[in-house]
């Protein structure tokens, strides 16, 4: 089946979240299963209807196996591809192909992690274990880490395009303003540009407030074919385009520190949807760090390369700004248990169903969801839309 035939052939019909923020005394599996049950119920289905599964975890290389066991399902389609935080955006295309091929009828995509309150392993211990099982031969000897890697990209963007720390701070403040409208967001205290600039420096030029939080959280969504979606409980949100791209693993192997593979995944996803950035009403980006938002706005075509700082300035992506971006508060202020791509998908669906409450973007019919994995390594873009966008 050609890409343009896949456009709108599958819809997200149920979403659910659990354990957002802190989930004391509960395991990652427990909160994920709660989110999965909510998503399946939201779709008007039962777990017996689920015959496809897509899931991944930083903590377990064979995560699909205990997930299937715990849920008590017998899936005919299984995808446990691990591309880091963008995995749950990237999982859409294989699921779409499986659904259209008739291999299954309802695919559950689910994720959960309790990075903040894990009773068995601290976040630092998880990072240490990951360094052992996923070594970076060119970088591990120099003790680089996630923050220093993203700081390199931020420093290069500042050098090359004149982007400032204040521009980065605009991203953090905009996310917080959206979070203040979201009762589920974990960090809702007021935040100013000055407070971001004065925060403890983690890796120059990134301060503590330029970095995502570490929280618990689980999410899930259900995909089914468009012909079936019309008869289910919720208003369908159609997948109009989806594509993934990987250009490198280590930050030192990134061809250009200011250009990500979002350029490729975005171009292919927009082509499949038959749309362009000017057609999009709401944007959900993986903001592990403030520089991410600027890079992805540029690489997805919402502004020219090098103009991301000016684009976000003066509240450009905050409530009431030129473009609604990260309307749940993002990984910077809402939730980030380690692989945030699940939550941007759920937020986009809620916006397109008109369920955003105080943060609802009026008349939203189209959304971009963009996930990031590794060290700006893996990128996955999805274009979602309501029936009006078909």
Automatic annotation (TrEMBL):
Source taxon at top rank: Bacteria
GO molecular function, one term: acetyl-CoA C-acyltransferase activity
Residue ranges of coiled coil: none
CDD domains the record matches: SCP-x_thiolase
Ranges where the Thiolase C-terminal domain occurs: 243-386
Protein name stated in the entry: Thiolase
Lineage of producing organism: Bacteria, Pseudomonadati, Pseudomonadota, Betaproteobacteria, Burkholderiales
């Amino acid at each position: 089946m050609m890409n343009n035939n896949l456009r709108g052939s599958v819809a997200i019909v149920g979403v659910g979240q659990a354990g957002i923020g802190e989930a004391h005394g509960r395991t990652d599996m427990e909160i994920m299963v709660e989110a999965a049950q909510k998503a399946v119920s939201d779709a008007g289905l039962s777990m017996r209807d689920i015959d496809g599964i897509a899931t991944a975890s930083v903590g377990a290389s064979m995560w699909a196996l205990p997930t299937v066991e715990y849920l008590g399902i017998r899936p005919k389609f299984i995808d446990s591809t691990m591309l880091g935080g963008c995995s749950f955006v990237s999982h859409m295309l294989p699921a779409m192909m499986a659904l259209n091929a008739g291999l299954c009828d309802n695919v559950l995509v689910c994720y959960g992690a309790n990075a903040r309150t894990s009773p068995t392993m601290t976040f630092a211990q998880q990072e240490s274990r990951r360094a052992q099982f996923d070594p970076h031969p060119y970088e591990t000897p120099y003790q680089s880490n996630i923050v220093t890697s993203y700081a390199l990209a931020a420093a290069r963007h500042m050098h090359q395009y004149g982007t400032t720390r204040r521009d980065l701070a605009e991203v953090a403040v905009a996310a917080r303003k959206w979070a203040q409208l979201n009762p589920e967001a974990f960090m809702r205290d007021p935040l100013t540009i000055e407070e971001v600039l004065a925060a403890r420096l983690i890796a120059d030029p990134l301060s503590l407030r330029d970095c995502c939080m570490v929280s618990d959280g689980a999410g899930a969504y259900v995909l089914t074919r468009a012909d079936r979606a019309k008869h289910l409980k919720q208003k369908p949100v159609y997948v109009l385009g989806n594509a993934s791209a990987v250009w490198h693993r280590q930050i030192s192997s990134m061809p250009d520190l200011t250009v990500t593979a979002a350029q490729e995944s975005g171009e292919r996803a927009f082509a499949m949807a038959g749309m362009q950035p000017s057609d999009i009403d709401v944007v959900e980006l993986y903001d592990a760090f403030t520089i991410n938002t600027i890079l992805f706005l540029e690489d997805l075509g919402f502004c020219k390369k090098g103009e991301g700082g000016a684009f976000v300035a003066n509240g450009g992506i905050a409530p009431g700004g030129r473009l609604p971006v990260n309307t749940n508060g993002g990984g910077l202020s809402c939730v980030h248990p380690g692989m945030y791509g699940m939550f941007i998908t759920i937020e986009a669906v809620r916006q397109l169903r008109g369920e955003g409450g105080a943060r609802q973007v009026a008349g939203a019919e189209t959304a971009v969801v963009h996930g990031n994995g590794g060290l700006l390594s893996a990128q996955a873009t999805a274009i979602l839309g309501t029936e009006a966008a078909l």
